[in-house]
Amino acid sequence: LAKTTQPISMDSYEGQEVNITCSHNNIATNDYITWYQQFPSQGPRFIIQGYKTKVTNEVASLFIPADRKSSTLSLPRVSLSDTAVYYCLVGEIYNFNKFYFGSGTKLNVKP
Amino acid sequence: NAGVTQTPKFQVLKTGQSMTLQCAQDMNHEYMSWYRQDPGMGLRLIHYSVGAGITDQGEVPNGYNVSRSTTEDFPLRLLSAAPSQTSVYFCASSYMDSANTGELFFGEGSRLTVL
């Protein structure tokens, strides 16, 4: 079970690009990297998922180096509404019961 | 499309009482699960199911029961509530086939207080 390490909190200002890095040194060959976002009093919401290199969708980009021991979630031009907790999960796709939600990274976007 | 629906949203119980948290999904997902989230912490898996009639324990199953009689419903039963079960409970579901991404869909949560 690949554990992850991510910063407890980050501060940013509106309009800036935010990069949240997750370390997963023990990632296995079949593991994918998935990021979720959670607003206060709501359930987590899927943001992005990748296996290697770069994945981009309408919300974020995910950068994964060749050794896959870390990954970076990039949020372009954040707004106040991006203030949330961001979780990095590593595991075999569809093995949901093995996914470990740590404490996540609390992103605080300031005006 | 309702997604994952949890009821009730709020509940206060006295120690020793029993109750059931309801979870229903209308996406025909095979996988369903229950998590609890304590203040300032991540989510911990209580029980999960990979299909009707199949359930298994997660990380923190003690004090909770589940059943999966239909694909749509996955109720969580607290047998004898204790103050340590005060938490926010989330139900989540997903597909388990390669035609879909490995995305968990979460409900809005049920906030439980045990006095």
* Helix segment tally of chain B: 0
Q: What general outline of chain B do the C-alpha atoms trace?
A: globular
Determine the strand fraction of chain B and express it as a percent band: over 45%
Please indicate the percent range of residues of chain A in DSSP E strands (runs of 2 or more).
over 45%
Largest sheet of chain A: 5 strands, mixed
The count of strands of chain A amounts to 9
What value does the Rg of chain B take, in angstroms? 14 Å
Q: Order of strands in the sheet with the most strands of chain A?
A: 1-9-8-3-4
Helix content of chain A: under 10%
The N- to C-terminal Cα distance of chain A equals 39 Å
Task: Give me the Rg of chain A, rounded.
Answer: 13 Å
Segments of chain A where pLDDT lies below 50 for 5+ residues? Answer: none
Low-confidence stretches of chain B: none
What does this structure look like?
The complex is a heterodimer of chains A (111) and B (115). The mean pLDDT of chain A is 93. Chain A has strands spanning 9-13, 18-23, 31-38, 45-50, 53-56, 61-64, 70-75, 84-92, 105-110. Chain A has a 5-stranded mixed β-sheet with strand order 1-9-8-3-4, with no helix packed on it. A 4-stranded antiparallel β-sheet of chain A has the order 2-7-6-5, with no helix packed on it. The termini of chain A are far apart. With 111 residues, chain A is an all-beta fold. Chain A is 0% helix and 49% strand. In chain B, strands 2, 4, 5, 6, 9, 10 and 11 form a 7-stranded mixed β-sheet that branches. In chain B, strands 1-3-8-7 form a 4-stranded antiparallel β-sheet, with no helix packed on it. Chain B is globular. The relative contact order of chain B is 0.32. By secondary structure, chain B is mainly β. Chain B is built from no helices and 11 strands. The N and C termini of chain B lie far apart (36 Å). The chains are: A mainly beta (111), B mainly beta (115). At the A-B interface, strand 3 and strand 4 of A face strand 4, strand 5, strand 9 and strand 10 of B.
